[in-house]
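C-alpha cells as discussed.
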C-alpha cells in the first residue's frame, strides 16, 4: 500500500467515525426539536391548531394589504415560533414546516387574486387595496 492509499484509507475511516459520532450528538445550545441534522421525515403536513392557521392566513392578508405582498417576516416568524415552542420537541419541526406551507400557499393565493383583478400588478407594487374586499381566505373564487 502506498502512502497516498494509506492516507485516503485513514481519511475514509475517520469520516465514518465522525458520522457515527454525529448521529447521537445533541447540540446543547440549540432549541430542542429544531435540529435539521436528524431524519428528513419532518417535511410533512401535520395537524396544527386552527386558531394558529387563522392567524397565519390573516398575516398573509395583512402583508398583502399593508405591504402589497412584501414584509420583513418578523410577525409570521413570531407566531410560528410561539406556537411550535408550545409543542413537544418531536413535533416542532413538522408543525413549523406546516405553518410555513400554509402561509406561503395563502400568500400565493392572494397574489393570484390581486393579479386577476390587476394584471399589471407585481409583488411590492402598489395596487388599489379595495380589490381585497372580495377576497375570502383559502377560497378560490374562480372555481
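Sequence:
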Amino acid at each position: 500500500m502506498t502512502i497516498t492509499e494509506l492516507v485516503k484509507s485513514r481519511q475514509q475511516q475517520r469520516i465514518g467515525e465522525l458520522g457515527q459520532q454525529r448521529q447521537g450528538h445533541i447540540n446543547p445550545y440549540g432549541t430542542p426539536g429544531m435540529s435539521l441534522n436528524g431524519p428528513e421525515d419532518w417535511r410533512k403536513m401535520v395537524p396544527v391548531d386552527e386558531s394558529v392557521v387563522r392567524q397565519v392566513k390573516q398575516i398573509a392578508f395583512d402583508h398583502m394589504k399593508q405591504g402589497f405582498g412584501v414584509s420583513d417576516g418578523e410577525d409570521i416568524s413570531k407566531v410560528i415560533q410561539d406556537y411550535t415552542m408550545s409543542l413537544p420537541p418531536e413535533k416542532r419541526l413538522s408543525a413549523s414546516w406546516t405553518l410555513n406551507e400554509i402561509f406561503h400557499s395563502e400568500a400565493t393565493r392572494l397574489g393570484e387574486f390581486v393579479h386577476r383583478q390587476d394584471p399589471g400588478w407585481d409583488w411590492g407594487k402598489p395596487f388599489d387595496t379595495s380589490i381585497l374586499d372580495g377576497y375570502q381566505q383559502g377560497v378560490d373564487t374562480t372555481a
